[in-house]
Known about the structure:
- By secondary structure, the protein is α/β, with parallel strands linked by helices.
- The chain is built from 14 helices and seven strands.
- The protein has three domains: 49 residues, Single alpha-helices involved in coiled-coils or other helix-helix interfaces; 213 residues, P-loop containing nucleotide triphosphate hydrolases (Rossmann fold); 62 residues, no CATH class.
- It has a seven-stranded parallel β-sheet, sandwiched between helices.
- The two termini are 29 Å apart.
Amino acid sequence: MRRMSVEDLAQGIVEGSRGHIARAITLVESLKPAHREQAHELLQRIAPLTGNAFRVGISGVPGAGKSTFVNAMGVKLIDERAHRVAVLAVDPSSSRTGGSILGDRTRMADLAQRDAAFIRPSPSAGHLGGVARATRESMLVLEAAGYDVVLVETVGVGQSEVAVHGMVDTFLMLQVARTGDQLQGIKRGILELADVIAITKADGDNEQAARVAARELTIAMKLITSDNEKRRAPVLTCSSYTGAGLDEVWDAVTEHRRELEEEGSLQARRLAQQRDWLWNMVRDELMESLRTSPEVRAVADGVEQRIEDESLSALEGSAEILRSFAENIASFPWSRSPS
């Protein structure tokens, strides 16, 4: 494969070349120091073209039909509303097996066939912070390529939902009606993240159960937020199979964005996300440096052995590791002044 310059990549992205977009995302996903430098240069070049898309996070309990929903909604947005839709599937499961990525692509077959769609799984190598970084930077690449709707789908395992919430404008939670207690297993913290809630599979014999679930969730949202002046997430029903309710769900997403823009909260939310991301990056870089530095690693191995021998306390051991880190800080790539 021919090596491509950052300038060529940036130009190809702007022109909407799928090959260039794919290469650029592979670059921003890489952890190699040389690739990280190129990725930073690329992101700086395309920065003026980013920030205009609908950034929507989609999560939900297992079995809620997230991928099927994304497929149906994406097709509708392209065919009926002339959007260009990108999907980033966040899956912090095994990078070796690919987790549910293959299943997701199978359930998005209709969307994958659309020229105005781009679907990309986010590999994690078992590290959720890596997923969040790769997903956030991939989102910028896709926005620069002209995709005006970016859907970030998470498998729904708690931490991934929080990570995705920190990079989108609207967080859409999908729930499915169950037999018995509709609220069983839904954590309050996840409900508090939601900007819009949709009960899926509201068709056939399940339609009435979906309506009951929607009513119960609406009551739950009132109990969570007693302040009548504070916005509550609307609870809607929809069917990815029949298409019923999908327009209403997207209208709720666009209404939420409109409210954010009118209040001036959209820019404030994105700036807050940038600040959080700044410190996440600092923490991740420091941890990676601690893990990969031969000098620090040698000291850490000795400390761990002495802790196992009970000849050293964790407090004393941590101080030794940090001293070694401080003594060798000039050797880390990020500590050098840019040329």
